[in-house]
């Protein structure tokens, strides 16, 4: 009897998740007035949806329908000037699922509490658990933004920030792990797992955590999609045979990964618009020049935007990237990037002469050290 009851409770959320239906988001943000606007951004399949509405006396409302519950982002621009790439807009996550979701705050999104549906109640627990580490991260970001160009240029400053960032990130990872373990039956735990894995998840880290989720979560539409992601992560893990690919170079000629078999090749994902990528390029150039005569080369894969070939070529020339470069100019839809599960750049994969992945995401000093290690004894 107890086992049957437990099974029923485990299955219930999956039955609820399968339901499609209408949602309403009702917001109350103190006395925020027009021209302030609220935005709701979410994915509908592979399409990004963006809804907006004005805020009157702190009140706003969104209505819509979903086939499956989806995590969205609620943003509020108090100036009413629209979303901007250069000026961050306050935001918070919210789950779109059948029912009425309430977002209430005495003043702003920062202090908002979300309630009204089961997934949003679960997510509010996660946000509460993350509050301390999120505040630490925001303080660190403010410190970076307020630093002068001279301060940012100093290696000591950069290393100090990186070390503190990694420490906070480790704290957040612990919070995610504890939440997932305590609520394996919640779809929120699947999204928490994605954050737990980070921008470049390791199969050995995330697969055991995924296996610990309730069957209803793993068998949901989102769970099945993440299973496909796990398969891509596994296929690009250290020790695996690197997935082969073919893409056009700067002259339109087809270049395949297997063309480099017999050499160590660093498959480097980057783009002309990516600041961190451009900052890392001198390090890649330095190592390429040092080891190019020792059976080593680089193959650049650019995630440049459509109709931006000129910017891509200009960046190659300016950064002195003399190795082979390929791209389909599809931005984040770059076919090779999707094949390798790339969700952030820069990223790289060091592939050995046998076609197997030797290392991943080795940058800065780590790149030189790894190359010195694997190329020792090369003629």
From TrEMBL:
Q: Which InterPro entries match?
A: AhpC/TSA (IPR000866), DUF4369 (IPR025380), Thioredoxin-like_sf (IPR036249), Thioredoxin_CS (IPR017937), Thioredoxin_domain (IPR013766), Thioredoxin_ResA/DsbE_sf (IPR050553)
Give the range the annotation lists for the signal sequence.
Answer: 1-18
According to the record, the segments passing through the membrane are none
- Sections of the chain in a coiled coil: 123-150
Q: Which UniProt keywords apply?
A: Coiled coil, Cytochrome c-type biogenesis, Disulfide bond, Redox-active center, Signal
Pfam annotation, one family: AhpC-TSA
Q: Which Gene3D superfamilies does the entry mention?
A: Glutaredoxin (3.40.30.10)
Q: What residue stretches are annotated with the Thioredoxin domain?
A: 236-379
Localization (cell): Cell envelope
Q: What is its main location?
A: other
* Signal as UniProt keyword: yes
| Keyword Secreted in annotation | no
Recorded protein name is Redoxin domain-containing protein
